[in-house]
């Protein structure tokens, strides 16, 4: 069952969306009502009221005074002024104004999907699915058709694909437009045209493998949802162009209803995943609803350049459909995407999942990833912390191979934790490491690097000298001088361990 907050969030993705009045995001929505000026009973308090025909603030205020709807949805170019806000407060009903570029048909399809479910909405929106639509468009324009999303992934194609070029063949087989084809089309200004225009564009043949095409944008309001492509020999006639534009509008309704359903499912999934990684009381029930086992789980933390928007793109790749065939369950928290993945005690499955996700992202995107240690249900919050720490290691050293696993960098993470503890308190103001660092600063010596090399070489002078690229006698000389500057006690195991920790914590704090 959808609640008001979810409806408002999804309507907000359709472009400009203005809201006035009191909002209880937990209000449950169970039905739709259509404004009828002749009907004194406007709507129930659990229904979404669609204010078709209301195109002024006065009309909106009048509608709000007549009923008890859970929310009133309007569309138009006017603004919800203070009079509307006052009427909404007095009625206790929020009112939402959606971008006029989104048609009532598209709004009805999206809201119907959320309130009644995807299958009922699909019947209300248009007969048949996207593949049927592709066949219908192909028949109207006399050419083979593909319908693609904004990431150039193929959503549907017509059965008629005879004598298509190599680029189209590779597109259908790979379910995505090849990078070489995208680059060639981009140089012709095709994607710039799709961003700015709803008119079909004829693209002449660019090579024997990339013959002529016509493309039109699929858009809802100002948002580009995808495109429809027709392989042709020559430009379309005006009638064919009109049929193609009409088909793109129907495709927009399909994509909106599909996305609304997926967005809602993604939000439900995200709430359940947060229960797992935060150790909530309902975590056992969340685990069952997500269809995950109770053991051998790992938490993966992902970030991408571009902030939350870029990670949201990764999230949509990671959560395509709420199906049990998909291996992980994900939640976007801030600008970090967390995925709970089942894959055994080793990290191979998690590494393979991250690398497959990286391959599906645009070539100019940079992905950072950290994988927590293996966990059962009760240990998932700890695995989430380990994933965060592994992600921090990766982001501090981007040359590290993607992804970073806790199993491989636990030592660096431990030292980072010690560095954090030291930063929260106070590091020793005396002792060998502090004394040698002060001596280096005052006299230009290199005693701290020498001590680090000796400890890492476990006291082997030759190995330490090789690490420092100096003669062993130089190390011996420095060691004598270091013993004069401070009390080293290199023969005491506990002192050696403490010095190693102090050196590594200092290095971690300076990163």
From TrEMBL:
Annotated InterPro entries: CdaR-like_regulators (IPR051448), PucR_C-HTH_dom (IPR025736), PucR_C-HTH_sf (IPR042070)
Domain PucR C-terminal helix-turn-helix, residue spans: 448-504
Protein name (record): Helix-turn-helix domain-containing protein
Native organism: Microtetraspora glauca
């Amino acid at each position: 069952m959808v609640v008001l907050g979810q409806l408002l969030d999804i309507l907000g993705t359709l472009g400009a969306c203005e809201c006035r009045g009191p909002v209880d995001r937990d209000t449950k929505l169970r039905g739709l009502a259509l404004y009828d000026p002749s009907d004194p009973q406007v709507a129930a308090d659990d229904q979404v009221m669609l204010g078709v025909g209301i195109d002024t603030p006065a009309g909106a205020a009048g509608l709000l005074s007549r009923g008890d709807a859970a929310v009133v949805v309007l569309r138009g170019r006017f603004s919800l002024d203070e009079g509307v806000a006052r009427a909404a407060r007095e009625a206790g009903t929020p009112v939402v104004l959606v971008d006029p570029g989104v048609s009532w048909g598209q709004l009805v399809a999206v809201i119907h999907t959320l309130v009644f479910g995807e299958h009922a909405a699909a019947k209300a929106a248009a007969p048949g699915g996207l593949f049927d639509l592709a066949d219908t468009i192909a028949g109207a324009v006399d050419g083979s058709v593909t319908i693609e999303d904004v990431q150039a992934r193929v959503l549907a194609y017509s059965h008629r694909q005879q004598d298509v070029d190599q680029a189209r063949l590779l597109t259908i087989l790979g379910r995505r437009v090849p990078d070489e084809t995208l680059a060639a089309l981009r140089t012709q200004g095709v994607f710039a045209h799709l961003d700015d225009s709803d008119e079909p564009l004829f693209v002449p043949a660019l090579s024997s493998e990339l013959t002529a095409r016509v493309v039109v944008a699929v858009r809802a309001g100002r948002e580009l949802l995808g495109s429809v492509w027709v392989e042709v020999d020559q430009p379309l006639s005006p009638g064919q162009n009109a049929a193609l534009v009409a088909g793109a509008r129907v495709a927009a309704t399909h994509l909106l209803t599909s996305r609304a359903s997926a967005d809602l499912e993604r939000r439900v999934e995200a709430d359940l995943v947060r229960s797992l990684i935060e150790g909530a009381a309902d975590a056992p029930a969340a685990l069952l609803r997500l269809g995950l086992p109770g053991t051998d789980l790992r938490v993966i933390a992902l970030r991408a350049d571009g902030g939350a928007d870029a990670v949201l793109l990764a999230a949509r790749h990671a959560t395509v459909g709420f199906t049990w065939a998909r291996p992980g369950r994900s939640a976007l928290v801030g600008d970090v995407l967390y995925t709970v993945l089942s894959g055994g005690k080793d990290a191979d499955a998690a590494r393979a999942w991250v690398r497959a996700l990286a391959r599906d992202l645009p070539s100019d995107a940079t992905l950072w990833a950290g994988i927590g240690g293996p966990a059962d249900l009760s240990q998932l919050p700890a695995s989430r912390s380990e994933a965060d720490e592994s992600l921090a290691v990766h982001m501090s050293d981007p040359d590290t191979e993607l992804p970073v696993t806790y199993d491989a960098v636990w030592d660096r993470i431990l030292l980072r934790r010690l560095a954090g503890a030291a930063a929260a308190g106070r590091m020793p103001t005396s002792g060998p490491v502090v004394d040698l660092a002060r001596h280096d600063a005052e006299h230009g010596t290199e005693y701290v690097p020498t001590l680090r090399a000796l400890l890492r070489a476990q006291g082997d002078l030759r190995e330490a000298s090789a690490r420092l690229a100096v003669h062993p006698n130089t190390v011996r000389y420095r060691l004598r001088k270091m013993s004069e500057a401070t009390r080293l006690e290199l023969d005491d195991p506990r002192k050696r361990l403490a010095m190693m920790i102090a050196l590594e914590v200092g290095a971690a704090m300076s990163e």
